[in-house]
Every structure is written in structure tokens, then in C-alpha cells.
Amino acid sequence: MSTNIYGLNGISLTLLTNLGNVRTKFSTEKFREDLRTLLETQRGTLIGDPAFGSDLYQLLFEPANSSTAALIRQEVATTIEKYYNNIIINQVDVTYKTNTVQILIYYNLFNTNIGDTIMLEFIRGTST
Length: 128
Description:
- This protein is α+β, with helices and mostly antiparallel strands.
- The chain has three helices and seven strands, in the order ββββαααβββ.
- It has a three-stranded antiparallel beta sheet with strand order 5-6-7, with helices on one face. A two-stranded antiparallel sheet has the order 1-2. A two-stranded antiparallel ribbon has the order 3-4.
């Protein structure tokens, strides 16, 4: 079953095995999951669509400075614009913390009053 609300695709079904029920997620909740999947998928790893995903993982291990943060912001905006023409990116904040990179994406859906924020947090590994 699928639907198209404000240009957002689909209904996600989540099985609740302990209750024996099915819960549905509509529009913005489903869209947030789709957007997170898009950005967290390494470009070139999806069979059938090697262009799907982003190059964030390559940028995460670059030096933690303003130049890398600008490249991350550009990658997020470019990737989202490629797959979702109904999104207006208001701001992308990149924050470096000890061994983590936090990305906050503030956006609105085109021609609606619907706005939201998505946070992605990546743990940077250390080599010994």
C-alpha cells in the first residue's frame, strides 16, 4: 500500500510482534526515515542504482575543520536536491565533538508549512 502526501512517497509498516498488530507511519515520519537512509547510504553500494546515496563517509574522516564542514554541508544539500525537489534546505549545521560528527539539517517542504529537523551523528573511529 502506498500514498503520496505533499510529494512524499509511501507508508512504512512496522510490525509489533509482541502485540500482534501493525502500526503505520505516514508522511513526515516516513520521509525522515527515507532521508536518513539516503544520506547514510554510501554512494555506489546500492545494487541497481549505484548513484543512490551520499559521499558523507569519505568526508567524515577528513580533518575536523571549517573546510571539511563546508564540504559536508554541500554534500548534504546536493544529495537531497538530487532526490527530493520538494525540499527547501534552510540550514545544515556541522558540529565536531570528541570522536563524533553531528549534522543537523533544518528543512521545509515546498509549498507547505511543514518544517522539521533531522540529526545525523557519526562516530569517528580511531586507529591504533
